[in-house]
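ABC transporter permease (Candidatus Abzuiibacterium crystallinum), 584 aa
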Amino acid sequence: MGTYRRLVAYVYPYRWLFVIATVCMFFFSVMNALASAVLYVAVKGFYSEGYVTVDNIPYAPSFIQSIQFPVAAVPLMVVGVFLVRGIFDYTSNYLMADVGIRAIRQVREELYQKMVNLSVDFYSKGRTGELMSRVTNDVGFIQGGITDVLVDLVKQPLVILINVPMVFIWGGKMAFWAVLVFPLVLIPIAIIGNRLRRLTRRMQERTADILSVMQEIFTGIRVVKAFNMEEVEIDRFNRINKSVFDFFRKTVRVTAFQRPIIEVFGAVGAGLAIWFGYQHLPPDRFVAFIGSLFIFYEPLKKLGKVNSTIQQSVAAGKRIFEVMDEVPTIQNKPNALKLELPIKQIDFEKVSFAYEGNQYVIRDLNLSLREGEVVAVVGPSGAGKTSLVNLLPRFYDVVKGAVKINGKDIRDLDIKSLREKIGIVNQETVLFNATVMENIAYGRPSASLDEVRQAAAAAYADGFIKQLPNGYGTMIGEKGANLSGGQRQRLSIARALLKNPPILILDEATSQLDTESEREVQKAIESLMRGRTVLVIAHRLSTVQNADRIVVIEDGVITQVGNNDALLKEGGTYKRLYDLQFNL
């Protein structure tokens, strides 16, 4: 139950609301117990003329004996008891629901915050749909585990404890047989709970698979349609959905089994008590006794449901805390240093890097960049080019060697100050479903409209932005779906220009563009590169011919270094790639 204790700990900040709700539940339980007394006086009124006298309850406190009141007061007592009971019931339920909702909000916010702050390598291990499922479905499961369960965990035991004296007051020794069955009810509840927890976890994992498949298909819908794979994908979705249905049906079957079991045990105890009650109790006490038994066993059924909900929330909570307990691989050292300007030199010193184990994608690599220098990295696919540039902003850390800026190991630098000095334009342009201005100002939310326009103009984007329906206030759709590839890339470049970083990484920035779009984007890139230290990755050698130096990487090792003319004269891999691209 360690997982559930962690979940309930989120209630602690709202403990005073919890205390007030608990007090209300206590008075609700008292009113609930008095319902059997209402039944007693109602039946007693049938045998009375004008007045009801309490006079045949041997196990009641002495001050209750011989109480007398008019028969006309009985309806008022009924209304009064249930009115007060209803008020305390509403107040306690509302306050506990409020506590639960606040706690769930905190869980979801902490989970999302944790996910955003985890290192890049965490996202390379899992699927987007799986992570989304933990924030949505799993947190939804624990909402019932906190909100509904807390209400019943406090209220139902109070109802039982306060009602037990009433059972013995009305039933005397016969009540023993009804109460005796109570501990036996816990056995099937415990057995069913363990199975339910296992089923729920497996069902949640398959539900995450549904989200993952949907995310893949919706983002790749053009490919699905181009290859006429609609029926195949529908069939794949249906198979996963059926497995979720099967687990859900098993869960319902196990959950539904609890209530009848509890009712059967309760009926056995009540039957024994009723048998003896027929022989020893007068009608008024007998009716009150039966009423108190119903009041006694109803919380037992709800507690059985509580156990089911707890098991489901524990299964969901474990999946949530798996993420919350994840430790980022990239963290600041204590007393990390701020990276100060200017950036004089960047050095990769005997760098080796592997994503897993000893499968190195970069081996013993040495490379230096001077201030204002443009260095292009080229090579075959899978050579380690992107892996190399991902080390500079510390998306990953080197396994051996060091990356240094101004002679300082970047692992000793404050991560935020390091990344503030680096601008990145990727092969896959990442834009958000927001306005043009919000996308350009993503790294500088406080930037003015004039500053955003200047950056857009420098990126050759101002012209097409003005033609959009609402200009800089136009919503561009998810991932910039309403724009062309060249327009999206120019917005990305404008975003980097507005950030104005001294270090720039261009990762295949024009590889997915047609010739006309590439020409426009290349002008924007030339504007972006001025006065910065630039590391360029490119498949198209036409985009790097003017670089100060070109570095050729093969299998994670630098095999050639020089400018375009020198490398062409030298021959080797660069000359071969050049000839292939220019059909020489």
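Residues 2-324 form a domain with the ABC transporter transmembrane region fold fold (CATH 1.20.1560.10). DSSP finds 19 helices and twelve strands in the chain. ok done for today
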